[in-house]
Amino acid sequence: MSGGDPHAAALAAVPSLPCDAAGPVFREPWEAQAFAMAVALNQAGLFTWPEWAERLSAEIRRAQAGGDPDTGETYYRHWLAALEGLVVERGAAAAEALAARRDAWDRAARATPHGAPILLDNDPLRAARG
């Protein structure tokens, strides 16, 4: 990766990031989206990579203290928790707004037939508010 690649800074700042020779490895699409959001918010100046690495490390330590077995399967859940924490702390979004959006996605996912794309329009409460 070249020095101008925004992903290179993320990879350098977070050496525990699951990678292969081509770059970051994601098990599910939402993991790639969480990674991309962190890169975009860093580029927008919301946080520096050292701040990010510190916050992610703190999230991982907190989870391990709570019994997370650290098998790698929960890595991006910690990534997302760190991202949400920084977004709220820096005033980019309110915790209530993030929780409401998370709940809307959950309802939409539960209401979506298997194999169909999950869309916020599938949230039954959104349809009820019409």
From TrEMBL:
InterPro entries: CN_hydtase_beta-like_N (IPR049054), CN_hydtase_beta_C (IPR042262), Elect_transpt_acc-like_dom_sf (IPR008990), Nitrile_Hydratase_acc_put (IPR023808). This is Nitrile hydratase accessory protein. Residues 22-107 form the Nitrile hydratase beta subunit-like N-terminal domain. It comes from Alsobacter sp. KACC 23698. The lineage of its organism: Bacteria, Pseudomonadati, Pseudomonadota, Alphaproteobacteria, Hyphomicrobiales.
